[in-house]
Amino acid sequence: MEQFSNSIVDISYQQTGAATAVNALGMREMQALAYEARDKRFLLIKAPPASGKSRALMFIALDKLVNQGIKKVVVAVPEKSIGRSFKNTNLMNGGFFANWEVPPYFNLTDVKNEQDKKGRFKEFFLSSKAKVLVCAHATLRNATKELSDDTFNDTLLAIDEFHHTSADANSNLGDVVRRVMYHSSGHIIAMTGSYFRGDGIPVLRPEDEAKFFPITYNYYQQLNGYKYLKNLILGYHFYHGSYLDHIGEVLDTHKKTIVHIPSVNQRAATGLGKYQETADIMKVIGTLDHKDYNTGIYYLKAADGRMLKVADLVEDEQKERNMVQAYLQNIKDRDDVDIIIALGTAKEGFDWQWCEMCLTVGVRGSLTEVIQIIGRCTRDCEGKETARFVNMIAMPEAEQAEVKVAVNDFLKAITASLLMEQVMAPSWKFKTVKDDDDPHEDLAHTIVVEGLKPLSSAKTKTIVESQLDDLKAAILQDDMVVKALSGSTTAETITQHLIPKVIRERYPDLNEGEVEEVRQRVLLDTIIKGNDIVDEKGNPISTIPDDDDDKPSEGNRLIKIANRFINIDKLSINLIDTINPFQRAYEVISKSVDAKTLKVIQDTIAEQKYDMTLEQAITLFKGPLKEYVAAHDGKVPSVDDPDPKVRELAIALQKIKNLKQRKLSGLEYEE
């Protein structure tokens, strides 16, 4: 049966080495940027996986301990395996004034000592000598329930993967943050690779977020500044049936790979159970030679005779799991492990620098999770020129009972990929007037836009400069916007109504003028990054100048938008408002699936766009719909008709058709 593979993103980077080069204090580019803001009480560091956030925290925390009156530092990570990122580190060899040291007794992520972690957490604050403690989020949540707010006076609380917090009143981690902010003299450093939650709940309340000083370092800055990694490829592989029958088509055992299998509740799960799925994947990799019972590592012989070391992180048995994690925490050589099979682990903060490929089965509901998984293979490493992320997705089929769920999953994948394409590409600066010259301006990535509103407040400048990708993530995963990807919604509806709606929801304190300023930047950034930059003949051109002296010649930078070639030096807001910013995603759908499946997607989207019950559809079908067809010589109504009453009839007809199709397939219809 036919499969469909598609590379959504394939970007080459300049390999400048800037991201990994260190200054006189031993700091990389992002770390130095964060260290400049070390005196801020509340600091939000948003930077991609592998950019060095953990060491940035070490530099800032040590300065606060020595120079800012902070007495203790608590570092909280989402899972124990990430604790290794904050292990003892010699910083003085690089030129810093102190080393980072964590007493073993207060490293509560060490799998060798699981004794009374809550008790040791409380004991830490009573010790006059202990300065640093590392724990899991769960330990922080549980232990602080038994501590008073003033316990965190003169304490720095550092939370890794900060998107685990939530503005929701029932979020325990969010409650800890608010207690430290408002009821103690403590400081907070929040670190995250993606300041966005898949459930749509804000990470912080607007009034809380306003107190944090943001440091943003994007994916493009990091990857373009690497020394070894040159290419990043993000792709999707669509399959029919069971993923186990097709995983061999994309799993390359010559590449260091992390395989994330679907949870039992995901549609991609086979029903065999996670242990059987893991065993079946191992059979695809090779034949079992032996298992090292001192490390938990499996040795599998590939068809060509190579011996592959495979780590199983799906296993739940605690002793076995701890043994494998301990092995992975101490690997020091490229050949120590070849493939890791995981379910909920080996995502956030998991450090395996030799990883070349992440193969993920099933749609991930959160863009944050996608970014975190990609981050496992984007660490710079000698000998690694290309990193790949491949997402295996079950193709929606008309015969499936859960057609709506399948289509929704599919569109989540496409919108996530569209956003990732934009995150990985260079940032563009948009100007309002041509004579507003800046001698330090990157002319290759600057576009003049007629009618562009200048940013009038500090709030809008912060959003545009450091939060635009997160805002686009919220827009691209908004239910109404996702449905608009069917192509039947007008560009004006999307640009002038749906996008402003999401902006108002995310930033309720913005006035209408500020909403419009942000809206224009979202549109420009989305459309420019989603289309090819070409020369006058339509040939793609590099968006990176060959050398620092290159300047774009006037009139030769064109952009292909909605099958039109437009001079990007003459863009206007009026033009942008007439273009569907998400057309790129629809094109991806169109070329990635067969006509039958695409029709299922379109029909399901069209049906879901209207809040119509089956009873209402039947009533319209028996009366007004029959009258319409009779009056128009047998012509059926169209969902694109300008008359809303006609569109309503078209939706009723589509709902009846979908019902009939399901019944013919022997499937029950669920309203």
From TrEMBL:
> Record keywords: Iron-sulfur included?
no
Q: Which Gene3D superfamilies match?
A: P-loop containing nucleotide triphosphate hydrolases
- Keywords tagged on the record: ATP-binding, Helicase, Hydrolase, Nucleotide-binding
Matching Pfam families, A to Z?
ResIII
Q: Residues of the signal sequence? A: none
Looking at the UniProt entry, the stretches that span the membrane are none
Does ATP-binding appear among the keywords? Answer: yes
Give the Helicase ATP-binding domain ranges.
34-194
Which ranges of the sequence are coiled-coil?
A: none
What GO molecular-function term can you cite, just one?
DNA binding
Q: What is the top-level taxon of the source organism?
A: Bacteria
Protein's name in the database: Superfamily II DNA or RNA helicase
